[in-house]
Amino acid sequence: MRKLIVATGNAGKMKEVREIVSDLPYEVLSMKEAGVAADPEEDGKTFEENALIKARAVAKLLPEGEDAIVIADDSGLEIDYLDKAPGIYSARFMGHDTSYEIKNQALLDKLTGVPKEKRTARFVCAIAAVCPDGAEYTTRGTMEGFIAEQIAGANGFGYDPIFWVEEYQCTSAELTEEQKNEISHRGKALRAIKKYL
Questions:
Q1: What are phi and psi of 44, to 5 degrees?
Q2: Using CA atoms, how far apart are residues 170 and 77, in angstroms rounded to an integer?
Q3: DSSP characters for 173-194?
Q4: What are the start-end ranges of the E strands in the chain?
Q5: Contact 193, 139 (CB under 8 A)
Q6: Strand 170-171 vs strand 85-86: parallel, antiparallel, or unpaired?
Q7: pLDDT in tens, 7-46
Q8: DSSP string, 94-114
Q9: pLDDT in the model for residue 65
Q10: d(C-alpha 114, C-alpha 100), whole Å
Q11: What is the pLDDT of residues 135-176, one digit of tens each?
Q12: Residue 75: which of 46, 97, 102 has the closest Cα?
């Protein structure tokens, strides 16, 4: 069975990827499960560039002749009122070691008093696939919403507890896994990359 190696150490992301590609004939492995350790500097200017940097770095470390496709994602939160920040710096916003509880509260503080119609935001996810023959593909998915007034919900991770999903009248962290996979930025980008897989 052909391998699909996901360039992440994030258990939440691995779970999402496994669910969405479960109908494909691939053995889905995290970097750790594939025995690869890579932490390339993500110095791209776009989500797509950063996803490709990660996927290429892992692909380079695979044993010669390994029949595996490597996929990597780069995702983040764009808040229109803050000039699309934190954007590609979402994971590094306020430092790698700062908890999301603190990051989320800091963003809410920046939007104190800002009316709902100006709190528009989106989650963006770019996924890159690097194939053994050198072919490369990228896809992008977005999930539109607003920044909530307060932190709510225990499902999900990252900025989910402050991202308001109008359609369900709750935060992304209050959605069920099925609801989230259906509308999430990562779900959309993954379903798009499935065409190439």
A1: -70, 165
A2: 17
A3: GGS-HHHHHHH-HHHHHHHHHH
A4: 2-6, 26-30, 68-79, 85-86, 120-130, 136-147, 163-165, 170-171
A5: yes
A6: unpaired
A7: 998 887 898 889 889 999 999 999 999 999 888 888 999 9
A8: T-TTS-HHHHHHHHHHHTTT-
A9: 80
A10: 21
A11: 999 999 999 999 999 999 998 789 999 999 999 999 999 999
A12: 46
pLDDT (mean) for 73-97: 95
Query: Which residues are tagged catalytic?
Result: 74
Q: Note the pLDDT tens digit of each residue in 56-74.
A: 999 999 988 888 999 999 9
Q: How far apart are CA 108 and CA 81, in angstroms?
A: 12
Alpha-carbon distance 85 to 194, whole Å?
29
Buried b / exposed e over 73-95, threshold 16 CB at 10 Å, is bbbbbbbeebeebbbbebbebee
Distance of alpha carbon 67 from the chain centroid: 25
User: pLDDT-derived band of residue 178, with 50, 70 and 90 as boundaries?
Assistant: confident
Strand partners, 7: none
The CATH class for the domain spanning 2-194 reads alpha beta
Residue closest to 191 by CA, chosen among 108, 123, 100, 127: 127
Select from 184, 160, 182, 181 the least CA-distant residue to 172: 160
Place of tokens 């507890």: 161
User: For residue 177, how far is the Cα from the chain centroid?
Assistant: 15
Q: What are the structural domain ranges in the chain? A: 2-194
